[in-house]
Amino acid sequence: MMYSEKVMEHFQNPRNVGEILNADGVGEVGNAKCGDIMKMYLKIEDGVIEDVKFKTFGCGSAIASSSMATELIKGKTIEEAMNLTNKAVAEALDGLPPVKMHCSVLAEQAIKSALLDYSKKNNIHIDGLEDINFDDDHHAHELEEL
Ligand code: FES
Fold first, then answer.
1. Ligand 1, residues 34, 67, 145, 146: which to mutate, most atoms within 8 A of Cβ?
2. Selecting from 3.90.199.10, 3.50.50.60, 3.90.1010.10, 3.30.1490.20, what CATH number does the domain 5-145 have?
3. pTM for the whole thing?
4. Low-confidence spans in the chain with pLDDT less than 70
5. Where are the domains of the chain?
6. Which of the listed residues 28, 105, 122, 128 has the most CB atoms within 10 Å of its CB?
7. What DSSP line would sit under the chain, residue for residue?
């Protein structure tokens, strides 16, 4: 079987679907090649991710990745959320097929994009976000290669 049971389970029964009104941070990222889009909403209090919701217009692996990623950062600090890699998301799903690894990249990037929005709105600095430009071509190429 190509997909793990966990991928199938999170795809069929995704956690934290929806949006947060008046979210503290909202991020949207897409993959130019497949056209899938992921939107992430964060409620942050005292540096902790109190709530997180997502909307993903994309493939099953992207939905499973977003679901797992939200579970992994809920209740965690901003720093811990920053440290969540796409590999950790894929591992938590018991793996993704190589051609589907970029779906987990979207989840990592959606969280970082939402944190960037939060940092801008609150005029604070979050270590590790300064190097990321979600809109530039370079990044789109990076995603395409994955
Ligand atoms: Fe592109 Fe899954 S195929 S996000």
1. 34
2. 3.90.1010.10
3. 0.90
4. 1, 131, 133-146
5. 5-145
6. 105
7. --S-HHHHHHHHS-SSBS--TT-SEEEEEE-TTT--EEEEEEEEETTEEEEEEEEEES-HHHHHHHHHHHHHHTT-BHHHHHT--HHHHHHHTT---GGGHHHHHHHHHHHHHHHHHHHHHTT---TT-TT--TTSHHHHHHHHH-
